[in-house]
Amino acid sequence: MKKTLMDGGSIGRKLDFIAQEMNREANTILSKVNDLNLSTYGIELKTEIEKVREQIQNIE
After folding, report:
1. Cα gap 19→27, rounded to integer Å
2. 56 Rama class: left (phi>0) / alpha (psi -120 to 50) / beta
3. CA angle 53, 56, 60 (to 5 degrees)
4. What is the pLDDT of residue 59?
5. How many CA atoms lie within 13 A of 57 on its CB side?
6. How confident is the model at residue 60 (pLDDT cuts 50, 70, 90)?
7. pLDDT tens figures, 10-49
8. DSSP track, 4-48
C-alpha cells in the first residue's frame, strides 16, 4: 500500500484492491484462530481496514 501511495498517479482502484485483499487475509486469520484475544485483535483489524477503505473511496 505504501509503495502504491508513493508511486502516485491514478491509485484509487489499486488501493481499494489492496484493502480488499487485506480484508480477506483478516477473514482467513479470524476463521482459523481459536483464541479470544486474537479474535478481538482480528475484529479490530477488520474495523481499521474498513476505515481505510472508506478513505480510499474519497481519493477518486
Report:
1. 12
2. alpha
3. 145
4. 77
5. 7
6. low
7. 888 899 999 999 999 999 999 999 999 999 999 999 999 9
8. HHHH-SS-HHHHHHHHHHHHHHHHHHHHH---HHHHHHHHHHHHH
Contacts 24+ apart (CB under 8 A), 30-35: none
The set of cell numbers assigned to 48 is 481499521
d(CA 46, CA 23): 6
pLDDT value at residue 2: 87
Q: Would you call 60 exposed, middle or buried from its count of C-beta atoms within 10 A (0-12, 13-18, 19+)?
A: exposed
Mean pLDDT (whole number) for 51-58: 90
